[in-house]
Amino acid sequence: MWIYEKKLQYPAKVGRANLKMAKYLITQYGGPDGELAASMRYLTQRYNMPTPQAKGILTDIGTEELAHMEIIATLIYKLMDRATVEEIERAGLGAYYADHDRSLFFVNGEGVPWTAAYIQAKGDPVADLHEDMAAEQKARATYEWLINLSDDPDLNDTLSFLREREIVHFQRFGETLQIVQEYMNSRKIY
Amino acid sequence: MNREQLEALKELMAQQFTVLEFQLYLDTHPTDQRALMEYNEACRQLMVLKQRYQQAYGPLTFCEASDYPWQWIEEPWPWQICYE
């Protein structure tokens, strides 16, 4: 089960409202390499992992990604704060507004809705952990492109924190892959 | 949220992050005794900070005692806080 804590993992800071950045950032909410995809991927892959370390790391990183989803949601909420309809339209968010007003929704920057086809659970732990490592690198790159698009030092501080987490997760998944491969090799009968 | 509460909240968030980093590390290094000792100490410090914060500002999570009226729904929620 999960229990909510009424706080963020890291302060979600925004220097000023910025609808263009909100439009770009939403891909980390509902895009292919975003936090929802990451969380759902790890939390569904964990059931068939062969070692306790792998079950633990997928549970804990999958849970941390939910906390990241909340940070992204908070950033977008703040970036859109008090925006008028005219400003929303000028930023290219008119179509988004027609469907969602100022609500958060799981889409990428171009409005494509989230799909389970972004993720996989192959049942083969080596294949799944390789997918997880690739996912962390793709998310890291996305945060770097978002930082390139932003000139807000407060926002970039929060995005840099999230970027660094992807690097730590990649490291932990790499260690997990090694543990799983050693375990599987030890069980082979020649 | 006043400055004092925000600083207490940030201190708590930082300490919880320390615990999480140890947790992920220990998932793949379960026999690292030194890391385990540091984890246990970080958890102890987190519990102190949490208790102190909740006594002053109300519940952060499920199953914490509440003053009247029900404090859980008191604003701000995490996305409403100005962290700058």
Structure explained in plain terms:
The complex is a heterodimer of chains A (190) and B (84). By secondary structure, chain A is an all-alpha fold. Chain A contains eight helices and no strands. In chain A, helix 3 packs antiparallel against helix 4, helix 4 packs antiparallel against helix 8 and helix 7 packs antiparallel against helix 8. Chain A is elongated. The mean pLDDT of chain A is 97. Chain B starts with a helix and ends in a 27-residue tail after the last helix. Chain B has two helices and no strands. With 84 residues, chain B is mainly alpha-helical. The mean pLDDT of chain B is 97. The interface between A and B is medium-sized, with 32 and 26 residues.
Q: Which runs of chain A of at least 5 residues are low in confidence (pLDDT < 50)?
A: none
Instruction: Return Rg of chain A in Å.
Output: 18 Å
Q: How far do the termini of chain B sit from each other? A: 12 Å
Total DSSP helices of chain B? 2
Largest sheet of chain A: none
Structure classification of chain B: mainly alpha
> What is the N-to-C order of secondary-structure elements of chain A (H for helix, E for strand)?
HHHHHHHH
What form of chain B results from the Cα inertia axes? elongated
| Largest interface: pair, residues per side | A-B, 32 and 26 residues
Counting helices, strands and paired strands, the structural category of chain A is mainly alpha
What's the average pLDDT of chain B? 97
| Rg of chain B computed from alpha carbons, rounded to a whole number of angstroms | 15 Å
What oligomeric state best describes the polypeptide chains here? heterodimer
Low-confidence stretches of chain B: none
Q: Major sheet of chain B: size, sense and barrel closure?
A: none
**Overall geometric form of chain A:** elongated
Individual helix count of chain A: 8
Provide the β-strand percentage band of chain A.
under 5%
Average pLDDT level of chain A: 97
How much strand content do the residues of chain B show? under 5%
